[in-house]
Amino acid sequence: MTQHDLSGPATAAPGPPDPAPPPPGPALHTAAGDKELLSARLVPLRHPGQWASAAALSVLFAMLVNTIVTNRRFQWDVVGDYFVRGSIMHGLELTLWLTAAVMASGYLLGIGVAAMRLSHNPVLRGLAFGFVWLLRSVPPLVQLLFWYELASLYPRLSVGVPFGPEFAHFKTAHLFSGILAAYVGLTLDVAAFSSEIVRGGLLAVDPGQREAARALGMGDGRIFRRIVLPQAMPAIVPASGNLLIGMLKATSIVSVIAVQDLLYSTQLIYTQNFLIMPLLMVATIWYIILTTLLSVGQFYVERYYARGSGRDSRAGRPPARGLWQIARGNLPLFGRTRTDLAGLS
Amino acid sequence: MSAGKSGQRPLVRVRGLRKSYGGTLVLDGIDLDVREGEVTVLLGPSGSGKSTLLRCVNHLEKPDGGFVEIDGEIVGYRQDGARLRELRPRLVTRQRAHVGMVFQQFNLFPHMTVLENITDAPVAVRGLPRKQAVAHARELLARVGLDGREDSYPRQMSGGQQQRVAIARALAMEPRLLLFDEPTSALDPELVGEVLNVMQDLATSGMTMIVVTHEIGFARKVADTVVFLDGGRIVETGPPADVLTAPRHERARAFLTAVL
Ligand SMILES: Nc1ncnc2c1ncn2[C@@H]1O[C@H](COP(=O)(O)OP(=O)(O)OP(=O)(O)O)[C@@H](O)[C@H]1O
Ligand SMILES: [Mg+2]
């Protein structure tokens, strides 16, 4: 509730400048003190608790920054030395393109699986369900090792009719190099999770949209690309951003099969010189930089797909928001957590 | 409009149309003719099958029996001796392009501007050059009283404006037949009139229309034929002057008393 500051100066009154002539009809009841109420200044409720906790958190945060910067054992000079080393750069490159490849093929597969789960064909639906069920159940690390060690399970692969003649066969020993095992395993993992994200997004689109498009004589392919998918995107993008950032870091499990990604490159160095902390900092800072870039990208993608979603904005574009607004939208202070971004999806 | 064309083959012929959902018969042998340039209003209580009938006409719903014929062509099927074989989606799509539909919930595409809503299908489906489609869209917007709104998004418009855009979108395909499923039922009372006016103009210009509505005033003024449905059957049909003022069927009488 808003308190009325009755002692406030009457000159700041926001009330009507002129008393309007009484409207026709039954006379309104007048109570003593109405005049003061009308000329009172509105004082919003203060939130001292929020300010206090914000202050306390700021102090803690300052202490954290202080110790990170001043603790000599972080060895920031070493971090600087290794930050753009050749082998680190190569690892970074591998992390980047492995993530990109895994996400791209995982999503292609995932969209297909989502389409299968939404189809009228019970066999396709069942297969898709089984795929998602199985791949979501198996830890990615196990999958990775499984594909890597596939040769031990099937020393020979052949192409032919099941239980019938075979046309060609080859040895699997070299079929799955570490990098290929990583690519296949993580792709299947992304496919399983992304298919659920995509399916959820597609289900969120009003069926009337599809109907209207059909009534206009559009074909199924066009309806999907032009009508359904763009409207599913606001629901798909945030979850996909999460998956992408998660996958960027999850690619670091390839170190177990000796693929030299960003993290494994730093590990190779610190097993030699024992500068563990500074080298982990190198990897961490790179992950932070990449995640930041991806978050910014996600923001712009979300803004793109939010077009037409606001009533008040000029020419349908959501009001332009800069990076400051992203940052503020993500600050969990003053109860404003993500309020700015919430309106977008 | 004119009653003297009875010898001509009607634009729409519905014969013996049956449809059931999970055992319940929703359409139970519908026979209906709609002549070119005429307005047919479907009336009936909720659940009587009006929407289902309308959706069968452009094959959004597959009938279980009987057929719909538009301009001499069976909708959704191809006659093959004693059989009606279902058409490939591509051919059904082509048939639908000649039948426009306006929905209760407008169903405009919210991620597209008004202009994109109207021009998308003509360009993609009819292969109209973009420039021509845009020019046509502007004409249609003027016709429904919305010139200058091409760059708005649907959510920035009132319900009545959105429904008029939806009508313009349907008209952009230059349909031979327009279907309306309760086009004013989702509107605030003061916005109903602007949509009905546009529909009346269309009727006057000779558009063939099948309209599901509870607006009896519109039926009385604009309809050539009023069809009363109950329980999936047509229980009464005729010119509005007869059906609306002196309904013979008891259900129709009860319904009209309730609506008026
Ligand atoms: N997809 C569906 N699945 C199952 N039943 C349905 C389906 N569509 C319609 N029905 C049923 O068919 C009957 C007729 O529905 P329809 O929508 O045609 O009625 P209506 O006359 O348009 O009613 P209203 O005035 O409420 O719109 C109803 O009993 C409805 O429950
Ligand atoms: Mg209905």
TrEMBL record, chain A:
Keyword Transmembrane helix belongs to the record: yes
Topology versus the membrane: Multi-pass membrane protein
UniProt keyword terms in alphabetical order: Amino-acid transport, Cell membrane, Membrane, Transmembrane, Transmembrane helix, Transport
Region span, Disordered: 1-26
Domain ABC transmembrane type-1: from-to ranges: 92-298
TM regions (residue ranges): 51-74, 94-115, 127-148, 235-259, 279-301
Gene3D superfamilies referenced in this protein's UniProt entry, alphabetically: MetI-like
InterPro entries: AA_ABC_transptr_permease_3TM (IPR010065), ArtM/GltK/GlnP/TcyL/YhdX-like (IPR043429), MetI-like (IPR000515), MetI-like_sf (IPR035906)
NCBIfam families according to UniProt: HEQRo_perm_3TM
UniProt name for this protein: Amino acid ABC transporter permease
Organism (species): Actinacidiphila epipremni
From TrEMBL, chain B:
SMART domains assigned to the protein according to its UniProt record, in alphabetical order: AAA
UniProt topology in membrane: Peripheral membrane protein
Coarse class of the protein's main subcellular location: membrane
Keyword GTP-binding carried by entry: no
Superkingdom classification of source: Bacteria
Cell membrane keyword on record: yes
GO molecular function: ATP binding
Residue ranges annotated for the ABC transporter domain, each copy included: 12-256
Subcellular location: Cell membrane
Protein name per the record: Amino acid ABC transporter ATP-binding protein
Gene3D superfamilies according to UniProt: P-loop containing nucleotide triphosphate hydrolases (3.40.50.300)
